[in-house]
User: Which sequence fits this backbone?
């Protein structure tokens, strides 16, 4: 049987970058659950073993996909105002999640223990410290930001209230009768309202950071001092 020349050409030109891009396409089209090196090999026109010459295992390839996504976040936005730079980075992270919606569930829980990952953590911590110059408070605000960004991005990219459930959905009539507050709030849960909701949470986080910053003065040891 004659081989597909396009598939052969892709196989001959196999490279880490080409594999990575094909993997991103596959995850985007079929989701993480269906991702495998066998299916990726079919897309590239090669055997799965050929992929392992460039990535030792499927997990190494997944690590590279996460690195690729994280590297698109702008952690050094222009400007001298540290609050604005931090805000811009948070919006950039959210934009990354929307660029890679099928991959983001993995990004959200990944250890970020690669050079790209730890540099990303260092960059965001530096932005937080520029706003709240205290080691302990900066660490806590960094974690709070992570909670918020991961949760909001998962909600927006994986689908609000679309998780698995064995329960039979209640009827609209039941909701109207039993849940008037939910009925009143429902329109604000729609995608058209996400920007305003995200901004509300983000600004609440920043306001608390600024409140904490006003209460402290930086000390040489990086500890907390009373202002």
Assistant:
């Amino acid at each position: 049987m004659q081989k597909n020349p396009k598939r052969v050409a892709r196989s001959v030109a196999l490279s880490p970058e080409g594999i990575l891009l094909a993997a991103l396409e596959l995850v985007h089209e079929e989701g993480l659950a269906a991702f495998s090196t066998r299916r990726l090999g079919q897309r590239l026109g090669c055997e799965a073993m050929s992929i392992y010459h460039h990535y030792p295992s499927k997990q190494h390839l997944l690590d590279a996909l996460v690195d690729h996504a994280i590297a698109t976040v702008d952690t050094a936005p222009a400007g001298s105002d540290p609050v604005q730079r931090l805000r811009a980075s948070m919006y950039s992270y959210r934009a990354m999640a929307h660029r890679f919606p099928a991959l983001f569930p993995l990004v959200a829980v990944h250890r970020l223990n690669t050079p790209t990952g730890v540099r990303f953590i260092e960059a965001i911590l530096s932005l937080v410290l520029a706003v709240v110059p205290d080691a302990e408070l900066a660490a806590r605000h960094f974690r709070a930001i992570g909670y918020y960004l991961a949760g909001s991005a998962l909600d927006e990219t994986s689908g609000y209230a679309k998780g698995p459930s064995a329960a039979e959905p209640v009827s609209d009539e039941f909701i109207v009768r039993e849940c008037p507050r939910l009925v009143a709030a429902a329109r604000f849960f729609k995608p058209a309202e996400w920007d305003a909701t995200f901004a509300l949470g983000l600004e609440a986080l920043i306001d608390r950071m600024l409140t904490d910053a006003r209460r402290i003065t930086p000390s040489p040891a990086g500890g907390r001092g009373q202002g």
In short: The chain is about 65% helix and 5% strand.
